[in-house]
Records
---
Amino acid sequence: MIESNLVEKVIRSALSRGGDFAEIFVEEKTTFSASLDDAIVEELSSGTARGAGIRVRYGDTTGFAHTADLSENGLLRAAQAASSLAQNSSKSRQIMALQERVFSPIDPLKNLPMTIAKDRKIELLKHLNDAARSAGSAIRQVGASYSDSLRRFLVANSDGVFVEEEQIRTRISISAIALGDTGMQGGYETVAMTKGFEIFQDLDIEQMALKAANRAILKLSARPAPSGQVPVVLNGLGGGVLFHEACGHGLEADHVLKESSVYAGKIGRSVASPLVTLLDDGTVTDQWGTFHHDDEGHISSKNTLIQDGVLVDYMWDQTQGDRTKRDSSGNGRRQSYAHLPMVRMTNTYLMPGESTPQEIIADTEYGIYVSQLGGGQVNTATGDFVFGMTEAYLIEDGRITAPLREANLIGNGPEVLANIDAVANDFSIVPGTCGKDGQSVPVGCGQPTLRIKAVTVGGTAGA
């Protein structure tokens, strides 16, 4: 993207006023997106954004500047701006020699979406629309969206890191609205992976659309959800986001070091049921939160956070790692070149257990089976959370029976982890977009089917 001699020159310029650390991050991102609303193309956009971010750190002070000017003069101006913002007066440190450039290209077997005609992408959306409407006359509105991106970045720093990487992502989704005597209900499906257009070789578009539409139709006959403390069974496609939000953010080192996490100071202590092993893993093949190197140039890794209920580690970026004299865990991520990196999750998931999903359901005399969770709110300092159940069913006498109207799950992350009393041997990861401090990054959220023996449900019927 830029030559190594210019990279080194920029880093030296960034440290010309002194500092402990300097970094250059250069990015080029090409995107395409299209959306369809009731068979009409509502939005179509494409473009390429390029730029660089320069970071200088001195003690706990960070100077940061970004620019869309990738000329030598533009980069050096940004380096000087970052240097002045760091406000330091130490001697200029000697930078380590840049390592031989590590290049992680896209797998040549992947079919670059940028080479596919936009009309073919729009045809996929029209196929989704037609298939969803074929589910029945109750379907009154259908929306579908498609997006793909090719991201190239280079990151180098004064510690000698020199990495260049290419990342590809493709996403398609559908939402269907059904109308009945009880009002309107919705269903949606999303598929998103770090794959190219080959994602559609194994994806049954028609079944994806019918699944969303049939979910919306089924919810028209839903009864009010019970309220109060009840056992809850979360399936693999529905519950991963709960553990991402209610537990994962509290295991990010920046929250921990600020003591704004309920998990601060608890390494080596039991924080969950012995059935719980929680990992953050940026190496899972093709998943939405997967990459070879993070946005600070550190190799992606598989990090065990909770082992058999015991807290064993947190997630680290370079800044938090330097403060505690430990290595980054490959969790330094940023939304774009115009943003500072911070500790972020990748693919966060609970490991499977030994029971079958059928055994867990049969062993639950009364409770709620959750297939899909919606948005929610979490307090990382306490672990308290509220999540919406967008698809749920009643469990009676060990069988899944009636669909339930949307309601809330209300609880506390550590308490939920402690109350997991059954874990199945199935497993699923679903894609998501994680927001933190104004930045959004792609992540994966995964789990097996599991049971929480008691969670508060904010329904409208008595438990």
---
Amino acid sequence: MVATHLPLGQKNLPKPMTFRQLIGPSFIILGLGLGSGEVILWPFLASNYGLGMVWAMAVGISMQFLINMEVERYALVRGESIFVGFMRLWQWLPIWFIFSTFLGFGWPGIGLAGATLLSQACGIANANLLGVGIFIAIGAILTLGTVLYKTVETLQKYLISIGVPAIVILTFWLAEPSDIAALGAGLIGRGEGFVFLPVGIVIGQFLGAIAYAGAGGNLNLAQSFYVRDKGYGMGKYSDRITSVITGKGARKSFSLTGNTFPLTEENLKRFRKWWRIMNIEHLLIFWALGLFTMLTLALLAYVTVYGMEGNEVGIQFVIHEALVIGQRTVPMIGTFFLIVTGIMLCATQMTVLDSTSRIMTENVLLMGTKGKSRVSAVYYTILWLQILFGITVFLLGFDQPLTLITLGASLNAFTMFSYI
């Protein structure tokens, strides 16, 4: 059944931003992939099977680049999230998006992985209790930031700008020419004793790694929120989520529906300029930087711990990496590696909580609203419910973050293929 209560306004398409003004949303979606596929799943596969599967990494991120650009084009033209468009197609789709988003990303595996690495670096005995503190801190950061989009974008920009170069320098300091040659061979599917896929690989882990070669699952669709909130195209006319404490979110209502533009010569000319520069921004930041970072982290795992006993147990391989890095350099650098990767994982968990709360908020409101909605109030309610769920999982004693991440990744692979 088609929804009939979602009117679409009409205004002229704003002038395109400069490239510098445009930069932002791709850092957020890159950050979503950094803490799952890039730091955990692909290095896990490299530490256990070598570099012969990195071809799938390139396939996965290229596929998600195409998906993301279609999502961005929708938001550019209509100034609303793509979930509003799905609602116009069939009014019961929001139920699927709420269910699949929580099922795929509700498990706090990424945050637990970050807490595990930070507890190892800082000598804290109970990683689960540290995870509780991290989730509370995430909630405070997202709640106290005046404009939600700016809070998330700024944090991810700084973390990626500092963390990625540090890891790149470390990797190429430790790597030998033969290691880089093995990486190149892996890009065409040639591994050590196998072609494309090794015997005995867990298919769920492999499919999950492909899904997490980018954001994965419904989080690709969340790119429409960030494009809209940044003010791309018709998003300039849209409202943004503000804090219920430091902003006006508690009492402010706004429409979920957007505006499109009349097909005049000037508007079409502006659209082509917008589309070209948006493709360049996403290609450079999400695809090129994302692929380079994933390849680098997989290479680092390979040159430090490939074939080491115990790599197959949870995220023990990351701790092994830090120990080997400390042995080959100085112990402080190994500890620094754990801290950087731990913080990156925690930042990813924050962005996941933001994105999933946005998705569920909008779909909850789409099922009930026929006008303006108090989006911020609903968003922060769902955010803190998710945080409480994560804390409950920690307190119940779950201590295998890789299992939770792999479970979520496998579910998100199915979810992603359902809307391609």
---
Amino acid sequence: MSKGKNKTHSGTKKRFRVTGSGKIMRERAGKRHLLEHKSSRRTRRLSRDQVLAPADAKRVRTLLGK
């Protein structure tokens, strides 16, 4: 009997994306609200995507089914 298919983790799917070269990107925390008192320099820095650490990337890759 077949075991069935693995499902992609929905929360992970929404939070991470895989680049063409296979790196996993994530958004930085802290840019949703209360931006008034944060400097423009800080909000620009928070806008950039961050490459996920290799140790975390392995776990995320499993959840994404890659």
---
Amino acid sequence: MNLEVRWVEDLLTLERERSISKAAEKRFISQSAFTRRIQQIEEMIGAEVIIRNNKNNIEFTDIGRIMLVMSKNIEKQVEETAKLIKNIKNETESTMRFCVVHSLASGFLTTFLKKFPTFMRDLKIEIVATNSGEGLSLLKEGACDFMICYADRSNINRVGDDILSGIKIAETEIVPVSATEADHTPKHTIQNNFSLLAYSKHAYLRKLVDQLIEGKLNYKTLYETDNATNLKELVLQGLGVAWIPKINVEEDLANGKLVMLDHQEYCLPQDIYIFKNNLSDNKSVQQIWKGFQIQHD
């Protein structure tokens, strides 16, 4: 799939304006040219992204809403990258490389970075979003300095083994959530056949959720991704149910946009750990690690 960056802006502009003519004007192209771009997107993915009727306001298909979520995620990543580049200092600095699982790479990581020891403010930090298996492999190979991921008491020794050391830095639950109706009741439940918004097959959280619900609940998988943020956006669109780390949806639960489905047997407690390679002789890594040990002793 060869997605042009301009198409991302086209879709986001169309969502904001809800009119092809107004969106074309905002994009400084003719209405016919804008229409051709939308058609090119549809040809590329093999499905329609907008509902073609005679209504004044444009409406998106389910596929179109998924494309909107992807577009917003791309836009956010571009903005964050631009900010990162802008903030990089010109002088030579130590670079600390953190691998972080996708579902912790946004909200949780921002909070975690604010708790760093004061001396770390002079370090350049490189963040790589990845899955658990790949991130731990990179850490063992010395390709990154730290790995932040989920682990529970049953697998912490297997995850860390003898090469890695780990410190528990937080805890959360993986919970089933749904968008809400106008009366604040869940739009979807897990009692009957439901649409599941799932993690990709190689994702750590996918394995956990599969073990929890396979053979116990009736569902059809509508969408798969590594990214919990993408899943949350799709849930907010009302497309189905997803199991998401509670720390990623606390604000949405508090303001009533999402509701946690009240089935405690389908909630998974999970600890969040930071790991380092015991073979690393990097002085900054050792200093940072001591700081983490003091904070979480």
